[in-house]
Amino acid sequence: MRLLLNKLFNIPKSFLLQNPCRLLSKYYHAQAKSVENETQKSLNIAIIGIPNAGKSTFINHLINRRICPTSCKVHTTRKANKAIYTTEQTQLVFYDTPGLVTESEIKKYKLEGSFRSAYRHAAQNADLIAVIHDVSNAFTRKELHFTVIDTLKMYPRLPSILIMNKIDALKSKRITLDLIRTLTNNTLSSEQANKRVNKINKSVVKESIPLKKGGINREVSWSNFSQVFLVSAAIGSGLNDVHDYLIASAKLRPWEYKPEEFTDEAPENLIVDSVKARLLDYLPQEIPYNLETYLEYYSLENDTIYASVEVVCPTQRIERLICGESNGRLRQITERVTSDLIETFGKPISFTIATTSKEKQKINQ
């Protein structure tokens, strides 16, 4: 039997020592797996930009799953997060990074070292850099921040695309076209710009436009973007074009992650990050940055997630502020986090938030 299989199907000798009945099944399963790997494609994308440009919102809406924490305040993302999106034979891996900041900002706001290293790690593992640029801010939209340009210069061999976000804030087509020309150093042809076509004319390569400010020349544009996209991530506008471009840019190679995986982050960390993000939304000024958040309980039972988080406040006054009158604000925060977690995990969630203060903890010691 073994000799017959060897002659008819040219099965390797290593398989011939096994049970012949299981032999064909195992062999063809291995062959099918090999063929599947040969047709798989993937692309690693580093998402960079200054704080609050909409990087996390862009990823969440593009892949239609809430993986990256978002809020209305800066520095919601405090470490690199991976969002994994698999469709048919293509897997996209997004590296969501903290907003690019200067060394002085890291010291001033006592930011973690991840603000310095996360974007480098992302770029080193990326096939493509996507720059998210907020065009809703009239004071900053006409120039790329120097931290963005410095990052692009560090990785000149990586292809890059410009994603102009919050485009719905621009009421004039002329403003939009002027911004495209300025930010790309006018590497669009007139016809392309007027039609708002996303392709950059790669045959034109120029030095970045210098801006003289305070007697110092500094660059405000990048000439080597391979594509420009106009999107409003929060409402999902323009994302299909980006999606199709990334799928088409994927490289033929085996996937790094299983198709059912959507992040490499532990579920416990996702829960804590979701709470921190909503506290940023509901609490004023610097208060949420001074809170400590811990996971008290996590369990997955019968496809339902049970979790509880404790928020430790500096003072009892802050604790009362979080809870609100008759615990009304705390209930609102809990409901929002629960909704976020359902979007993240796609499962029923039983979730609670408890609060305490350091003053209470001292009394109880």
TrEMBL record:
GO cellular component: mitochondrial matrix
Organism, scientific name: Glossina brevipalpis
Record lineage: Eukaryota, Metazoa, Ecdysozoa, Arthropoda, Hexapoda
Family: Belongs to the TRAFAC class TrmE-Era-EngA-EngB-Septin-like GTPase superfamily. Era GTPase family.
UniProt KW Nucleotide-binding keyword: yes
Protein name, entry field: GTPase Era, mitochondrial
GO molecular function: GTP binding; ribosomal small subunit binding; rRNA binding
SUPFAM superfamilies for this protein: P-loop containing nucleoside triphosphate hydrolases (SSF52540), Prokaryotic type KH domain (KH-domain type II) (SSF54814)
G domain sequence ranges: 44-166
